[in-house]
Amino acid sequence: MKPVLNTTLAILFSAGLMSCATDDPNKRAKTGAAIGAVTGAIIGHQIDGGSGKWIGAAVGALAGGGVGHYMDNQQREFEEALREEQRQHQLEIERLKDDTLKLSLDSEVSFAFGRAEIKPAFEPSLNKLADVLIKYDRTVVHVVGHTDSIGSDRYNQRLSEQRADNVVGYLERRGVSYSRLRGEGRGEYEPRASNDTEAGRQLNRRVEIYVKPVVEGQEERAYEAPRY
Q1: CB contact at 8 A, 215 and 62
Q2: Distance CA 170, CA 129 (A)
């Protein structure tokens, strides 16, 4: 890490802690916010801007033994915040074997057919999702777009990329650090069901959000594209 970055982070950390006077009733919250800001800055500078590759260990990564508990709490808060969306089958939440959380968004609800702009009616749901992501900031968020097979391969690939990019941009505007966000499109190449029926095509039109924990000593894995 460059000396200038070390100095900057030390100043940030000191300034945050100085704001937390011993007689301040909000000391704990302010201290946590200060540490979180510094941790986010450190994590953000571990990524090579040109290659997107991991270049160092992150301070504040989760210790291996605490990952399950951390992701349990995050999953519970997702489920509580997005209970209505799950009830209406607009969103699914799944826990994967490596503690990654997978949230599948129904494209019929979140996007108009053939369009990449997020529907205004779905924005409140993304707001709730963003609030939980901000609270649990020791994770990397991968947004992956998928389409059905209607249209050319090139068109579907571009549409899936645009939808993923728009979700990434929306989450960033809501306050999720851009250093934690990754977006990609996979077009029509990973269908959940047959494209021979409308029901199958509807399942294939989706955006998936993978929330991967940053684990101490294995930080680079959080930034790897999800393959399940």
Answers
A1: yes
A2: 11
What are phi and psi for residue 79, nearest 5 degrees?
Answer: -65, -40
pLDDT tens for 107-154 read 889 998 899 999 999 999 999 999 999 999 999 999 999 999 999 999
Give dist(CA 50, CA 158) in Å, integer: 22
User: pLDDT tens digit string along 82-95?
Assistant: 999 999 999 999 99
Confirm if 221 and 162 have CB atoms less than 8 A apart. no
What Å distances lie between residue 45 and 56, 57, 124, 195, 216, CA to CA?
9, 10, 31, 42, 16
> What is the secondary structure of 31-52 as a DSSP string?
HHHHHHHHHHHHHHTTB-TTT-
Name the DSSP class of 54. Answer: B
- Is there a contact between 138 and 35 (Cβ–Cβ < 8 Å)? no
